[in-house]
Automatic annotation (TrEMBL):
One of its GO terms (molecular function) is ATP hydrolysis activity. The keyword Nucleotide-binding applies. PROSITE patterns: ABC_TRANSPORTER_1, ABC_TRANSPORTER_2. This is ABC transporter domain-containing protein. The lineage of its organism: Bacteria, Bacillati, Actinomycetota, Actinomycetes, Micrococcales. It comes from the Bacteria. Pfam families: ABC_tran. The keyword Glycoprotein does not apply. Keywords: ATP-binding, Nucleotide-binding.
Length: 217
């Protein structure tokens, strides 16, 4: 059980091979423009590489030959959730409905989806916010809710793109501690510029530069 991805995309000057072991969190680091977000987008199914192959838990996500032909599993069917810098909650739904959305779309009934949502909101310390709309949340609160929504979807792989970038320095440590707890034993990739995130969250680190793997530890 693992993720193995090889992707080449000329338009982004990306040419990488990266693996994540089962239950591990990989930190993806490197300077601006190194290709970190592009690689997450390829794994999430939001960006199509020219050629490459990705296998998650033994299941092929894509396998594109030199002509770009081959199997391609669409984003919604990958078991992969991308948590972006901006929490991107559905503005017209309550916090509870936002978190229940994942279980609902995976076929859970209304009651079971809401129960799962309550449980995840409690896990991230956001249960009192359940009936608010996203517009009534602070940035840190919205990120907590976004974490709950991501986990409620029960992804096989969680991708986090600079999850603390929009938070001030007082909110970041609490969310980092929350992620440290919820990522334990899960497969995840976290893009970060902050050595504190690597230290707190990662089992392994891959550094990208100019769209290439420049180091791994
Ligand atoms: N929407 C886009 N269209 C075309 N090229 C893009 C787009 N987004 C990024 N790029 C280019 O792709 C390359 C990789 O960018 P990417 O955003 O993946 O890097 P990054 O490591 O995530 O950077 P940052 O740390 O600034 O977020 C860069 O050369 C960038 O200019």
């Amino acid at each position: 059980m693992s993720l193995d991805v090889t992707a080449r995309l000329r338009a982004r000057d990306l040419d990488v091979t990266v693996s994540v072991a089962d239950g591990q969190t990989l930190a993806l680091t490197g300077p601006n423009g190194a290709g970190k977000s592009s690689l997450l987008a390829v794994v999430a199914g939001l960006l199509v590489p020219d050629t490459g192959r990705a296998v998650l838990d033994g299941r092929v996500l894509f396998d594109l030959d030199a002509a770009g032909r081959g199997p391609w599993v669409p984003a919604h069917d990958r078991g992969v959730v991308l948590l972006a810098q901006d929490p991107l909650l559905f503005p017209h739904l309550s916090v509870l409905e936002n978190v229940a959305f994942g279980p609902r779309s995976r076929g859970a009934g209304r009651r079971r989806a809401r129960a799962a949502a309550v449980q995840w909101l409690e896990a991230v310390g956001a249960a009192p916010l359940a009936h608010r709309r996203p517009a009534a949340l602070s940035g840190g609160q919205a990120q907590r809710v976004a974490v709950a929504r991501a986990l409620a979807a029960d992804p096989r792989l969680l991708l986090l793109d600079e999850p603390f970038a929009s938070l001030d320095s007082t909110a970041a440590p609490a969310l980092r501690e929350l992620l440290r707890r919820v990522l334990a034993g899960r497969m995840a990739v976290v893009v970060t510029h902050d050595p504190a995130d690597v230290e707190a969250l990662a089992d392994a680190e891959v550094r990208l530069e100019h769209g290439r793997v420049a180091g791994a530890s």
